[in-house]
Amino acid sequence: MHDFFLLRRQRHQKKMMKYMRYVLNDHFVLVCLFLVGGLAFYYSNLLKQLPPDFPWSLPIVGVIWWFALPFGKLATLVEPADMAFLLPKEKEMGDYLSRGLRHSLAFPFVVELLICGALLPLVVLAKQISFTNFFFYLIMLWGLKFSHLRLQRLACYQKTQEQTQRLLVLWFIVSGAILFVSLYSTAWIGTVLSLAATFAFISLTQERKRLLDWSKMIDRENARLHRIYQFINLFTDVPEVEAKVRRRKYLDGLLAKISFKQENTYLYLFARGALRGAEFGGLFFRLLIVGGVLLFSLNDFRFVTGVSLLFVYLIGFQMIPLYNQFDYISSTQLYPVPTKYKRAALQRLMVILLFAASIIFTLCSLVHLSIVESLLLLVLLLIEIGLFAWFYLPARIKKMEV
Q1: Do the Cβ atoms of 105 and 146 come closer than 8 Å?
Q2: Conformational region of residue 208, where left means phi above 0, alpha means psi within -120 to 50, and beta covers everything else
Q3: Looking at the record's lineage, which domain of life comes first (predicted)?
């Protein structure tokens, strides 16, 4: 079963790497670098402004660590056909699940490493301790997460539902207690308590020759993979996730403003695709919401301008594939609509969407900026929209038509 799991893991990683090429594209990496840099800048300034006796430092750190612990699920990599073909090997599945547990540790351990490192300055500020305590806190978090994955492993077996639920509640309470004890006493005490709790949960989660609950294990793995595919689907098409068209009747008033003329054929189709399609409509609203939330938290004109310009560009760039969205429909090929109308339709729709996003971003900036600064921001966004719609977009469409 060792070689079998390695084969499964290799195939899974190869598939994920294929999708990562689309997820970690230049634009997404640029956004991440920009956001991380901005958040780090404001976080460092916040730490400088906080007094040493700030009473909420430790509670904030404890709550974030506590609720970050359940992050990360057990990856079993089982498939529906395993219920039949691996049943004769059920006695050897214990080793398979153990390897799956070890495989599942990597991602949550990295997340906890980053969270622990990011929040440690708050602990140092509140307790006036050295940064060497970081290793004690990190081992504590890793031990508690290992216990959580052991409970998920136990849930793969039959007649363990009630036991698993009780142990999960106990684990959550014990984890919170250990975290706050370590924060309000010394770090090494939390490490010792965490290791003791880990060994206790290992003894409580022994399988004792139980039979596997194949249906439940397969359903949980499918649900875990579906969440991953939903995230990847934000960047590219994923066959495992079926896109859904939503009615959104409340937006019919906007579509009614498009007159039924030959030159508006593609404008109506593009508007329908942007408003009803899960791919483009969801992408537009998600970028709009993320950009608006970021602008609410920024108070520097330079950062507000940079974030606004970046998100307007990202919205426009992600909507460009609308141009070929309806080419597979035979009626669009048979109906006599000149190509120039198709280009003009996408250009017009892009201006409308980007202008709406610019207005919303400008209103969000009024929270921290003056009216003059917000108006200047709007002017800069309008210039960007003009450059995008009349220079960049035609060049991209020309490449798509080649």
Answers
A1: yes
A2: left
A3: Bacteria
Q: Where are the alpha helices (DSSP H) in 69-160?
A: 82-85, 93-127, 133-154
Q: pLDDT category, 176, cuts 50, 70, 90?
A: very high
Mean pLDDT of 95-123: 91
In DSSP notation, 186-204 reads -HHHHHHHHHHHHHHHHHH
Mean pLDDT value across the chain:
85
What residues contact residue 213 under an 8 Å CB cut-off, 6+ apart?
156, 157, 158, 160
Instruction: Establish how many alpha carbons lie within 13 A of residue 196's alpha carbon, considering only the half-sphere containing its beta carbon.
Output: 8
Say how far apart CA 188 and CA 137 lie, in whole Å.
8
Give the separation between CA 237 and CA 273, rounded to whole angstroms: 15
Structure tokens at 255: 């579509």
How many whole angstroms separate alpha carbon 183 and alpha carbon 162?
32
Distance from C-alpha of 308 to C-alpha of 36, rounded to nearest angstrom = 16
Q: What integer pLDDT is reported at residue 227 of this predicted model?
A: 85
* Mean pLDDT of all residues in 332-341: 74
pLDDT digits (tens, 9 = 90+) for 304-324: 898 899 889 888 988 888 888
| H or E stretch at 351 | helix 339-365
pTM of the model: 0.72
∠ Cα 219 204 114 (to 5°)? 65
Question: Containing H/E element for 27?
Answer: helix 26-49
Q: Where do the structural domains in the chain lie, given as residue ranges?
A: 2-232, 249-401
Give the C-alpha separation, 252 to 101, whole Å. 49
Q: Which region among 35-44, 285-294, 357-366 has the lowest average model confidence (pLDDT)?
A: 35-44
Mean pLDDT (whole number) for 342-356: 91
pLDDT classification of 244: cutoffs 50, 70, 90: low
- Two tokens, residue 43: 């976080």
